[in-house]
Amino acid sequence: MKNQIHLLCTAIILLSCTACKTHVPMVQHEQASYQKKAEAVEHWRRMASEICQGLAPGMELSGKVIYVGPPAHASQFDAAYLEAA
């Protein structure tokens, strides 16, 4: 009788543990390969180009060279963007 109670308790615990498991996929980060880094750099280059093209026609500076210096206190994003450019 005691063995049956232990077996029943063990079965209930195992069933309750497996019922709590979710089927939601977990995020798995891959190491950045050269291809992915190149795609990211190209993505940011295109975004910067589109922004500049959108600004230039409405400005009197169209056709002139403009230099924008780095910010005094660069964030991690600024540093990564400047490194990739």
Q: Count helical runs.
A: 3
The total of beta strands comes to: 0
Structural class: mainly alpha
The oligomeric state is single chain
Largest sheet: none
- Radius of gyration from the alpha-carbon trace, in angstroms: 28 Å
Question: End-to-end span in angstroms?
Answer: 75 Å
The whole-number mean of residue pLDDT values reads 76
Shape: rod-shaped
What fraction of the residues are assigned to beta strands by DSSP?
under 5%
Proportion in helices: 55-70%
What report would you give on this structure?
The longest helix has 22 residues, at 34-55. The chain has helices at 2-19, 34-55, 76-84. The mean pLDDT is 76. It is built from three helices and no strands. 58% of the residues lie in helices and 0% in strands. It is an all-alpha fold and 85 residues long. The termini are far apart. It is rod-shaped. It has a domain at 36-58 and 71-85.
